[in-house]
Write a structure and sequence with these properties.
Helix content: 25-40%
Low-confidence stretches: 1-26, 554-584
Distance between the termini: 27 Å
Number of strands: 28
Mean pLDDT: 84
Strand order of the largest sheet: 11-19-20-14-13-12-26
Shape: elongated
């Protein structure tokens, strides 16, 4: 199983429907087992909001236990459909259980699943051929479950589909006793007490700079082991859901997930599993004492109880038909990494969408028997390292190297160091560091994300441009013409312009990188301001250096005419090359002060930017 990053980050519940989320390929022979519960094709778009051209018709409006009922999925306008899925659930109570049994269906067009049941309770298409009608026979449960909702989804094509079309079967026999189940959601009975964090219960908070006493933490998770159960509480701002994941590493995949969903229309807790970069919802059998509430500031609160040891009954990931189950244990007596994510649900469904920001992750495996306060991190360490390398390379080093080359060729007069002018040694050393750090950062991030990621495609494109120009600069430096060559002026201009273009591309890449959609919103806001102000200050310094140079009488210009001082600054054995033909430039003291102030200013921006990279 591949381990990916910025979807480490995609840890939360990107539920697969009839398409493979990793490749975007459709399943022409029908949805997988895991799609039975959600009925939402995850085609990277919302379902149609207008009236559906398709209908779900039943042979009778009410049922007795054991009735055999005809269900027809049909087109109301003779418009064909390619895919479909249908199942039945309670109207009230445990609405997650898929009930009844499909007893007759066309094997040419249909295939059946037994979703956490011994009976075939879910039907999907068996081919992507056009159809206008599918007729099924469904047997109602042997005891009355109250009113039952027949739910169906129709797929016209990849981008056009309708999910959760319903028709209701009224119960002719009333339910003998009101159904209760352990994971039934009730209103939060008491506020989450954060004063006990680090005393009687463990807590994980986010972001890093928040403090529980000040009440400025955006997200908080508490846990307290009581015998053979663990009580969890989670709070944070979310319009749709908050989710916890238990993982053996810091990457998405092979994780247990528990998701609290709270909107105007949906109030439920969902149990799930991440086989890889997506989530499969599984049947509840373990969670209890579920309570939820929403505060006035849109803060969502959720409390639930989970056994210390859980064995999940799972279907092998992406396996076709027939499918096989296997068991996997998640025992909180052992230590696990803890993830927290949040996001919205798809319109008109109870299906969670992908998280809106990077989930935050515990910095180490959590001991759920220990009362401690942990600060979760959203940006993975390899991404932080990549950011740090690029910031160091292109904020101070590239800036100083270009300023030295452009404005300080005569500042050190006759001084030679290791056979070359000092300005050239400084310029070369800085640019070699820029090339080295850029290469390291480039390789690191591509290894970490294991290829190309659509979520950061534009940032990556500019990053590749920066890397390409940097390598180009290194290569042409080895083949620079001699000072008296006719090609030297052309080389000079290409070298200078490539340097400027690479600096501009690096600045654009930074702005795009900090605004990748999954980055924490506070990080985006602050880092965008820091980088934008740095760009503005860099431009102002360039103008100031030009003004200072003009006022000090410097004779240097961008002319293509080559003077006695070669661009590479390499000293010649001739005395005439070791001594400048010009007098020491006027205003050299001002230039020196300006260089110091410039260096200090870019270091300040670097420190500010690095601080926020490592805070999140």
């Amino acid at each position: 199983m591949a381990k990916h990053d910025i979807e480490l980050l995609l840890m939360v519940l990107s539920v697969m429907a009839s398409f493979d989320i990793k490749t975007g390929n459709a399943f022409p022979t029908g949805g997988l087992f895991k799609t039975c519960i959600n009925l939402l094709p995850k085609h990277h778009t919302e379902q149609q909001e207008g009236p559906s051209p398709y209908l779900v018709e039943v042979s009778q409006e009410s049922y007795y236990p054991g009735d055999r009922i005809t269900i027809e999925l049909k087109s109301a306008t003779q418009k064909s459909f390619r895919g479909f899925q249908v199942m039945a659930q309670r109207r009230h109570g445990d609405t997650e259980e898929v009930v009844g049994e499909f007893t007759e269906y066309s094997q040419k067009y249909c295939k059946v699943f037994a979703w956490y049941s011994e009976k075939n309770n879910c039907v999907t298409h068996n081919s992507n051929k056009d159809k206008t009608s599918i007729v099924l026979k469904w047997k109602s449960p042997s005891v009355s479950l109250g009113d039952i909702v027949i739910r169906a989804a129709f797929v016209e094509n990849y981008e056009v589909f309708w999910a959760n079309l319903t028709t209701v079967l009224m119960a002719n026999v009333p339910v003998q006793a009101e159904q209760t189940y352990p994971w039934q959601v009730s209103r939060l009975s008491s506020a989450i007490n954060l004063d006990e964090c680090g005393r009687s219960k463990g807590c994980m908070v986010h972001p890093n700079y928040c403090t529980l006493s000040a009440g400025n933490c955006d997200y908080v998770v508490t846990y307290q082991t009581k015998g053979n159960v663990v009580d969890f509480e989670v709070q944070g701002k979310s319009d749709g859901y908050l989710t916890l994941s238990f993982s053996g590493d810091i990457y998405m995949g092979d994780d247990e997930t528990i998701t609290c969903v709270l909107t105007d229309h949906v109030v439920q807790i969902q149990h799930g599993y991440n086989p890889s970069l997506y989530n499969e919802r599984i049947r509840h059998s373990h969670l209890s004492n579920v309570q939820m509430a929403r505060g006035e500031d849109n803060t969502m609160y959720c409390r639930f109880r989970r056994p210390v040891d859980i064995t999940l009954n799972l279907v092998k990931a992406d396996e076709g038909f027939p499918y096989t189950f296997y068991n996997k244990s998640y025992n909180l007596a052992s230590d696990w990494y803890l993830f927290v994510g949040w996001g919205n649900i798809y319109k008109g469904t109870d299906v969670v969408n992908k998280h809106v920001e990077l989930p935050f992750v515990s910095p180490h495996k959590v001991d759920f028997q220990k009362a401690e306060v942990i600060y979760g991190k959203a940006i993975p360490i390899p991404v932080q390292a990549h950011s740090a390398l690029m910031l160091i390379a292109w904020m101070p080093l590239a800036g100083v190297a270009m300023v030295i080359s452009r404005h300080y060729r005569h500042a050190y007069h006759e001084r030679i160091f290791c056979g070359a002018k000092i300005w050239f040694q400084i310029h070369r050393a800085c640019m070699l560091l820029v090339a080295s750090l850029t290469t390291a950062g480039f390789v690191l991030i591509f290894i970490h994300v294991n290829g190309w990621r659509e979520v950061a495609s534009l940032h990556a494109a500019f990053g590749i441009a920066v890397m390409a120009i940097t390598l180009f600069q290194v290569v042409i430096a080895f083949f620079r013409p001699a000072p008296d060559s006719k090609r030297r002026p052309l080389f000079t201009w290409i070298h200078r312009m490539s340097g400027k273009v690479s600096h501009i591309c690096a600045a654009v890449a930074m702005l795009l990188g900090v605004n990748i959609s999954l980055m924490p919103k506070k990080f985006q806001s602050t880092q965008t301001k820091i980088v934008a102000v740095w760009v503005g200050v860099q431009v102002l310094w360039e103008i100031c250096f030009e003004i200072i140079k003009c006022r000090s009488g410097s004779q240097e210009s961008f002319s293509l005419k080559m003077d006695s001082l070669p661009m590479d600054g390499v000293a010649s054995p001739r005395k005439s090359d070791l001594v400048s033909e010009k007098a020491p430039p006027r205003g050299s003291c001002i230039m020196s002060v300006a260089l110091v102030l410039y260096s200090v200013s870019v270091l300040v921006f670097l420190c500010a930017s690095l601080t926020f990279v490592f805070l999140f």
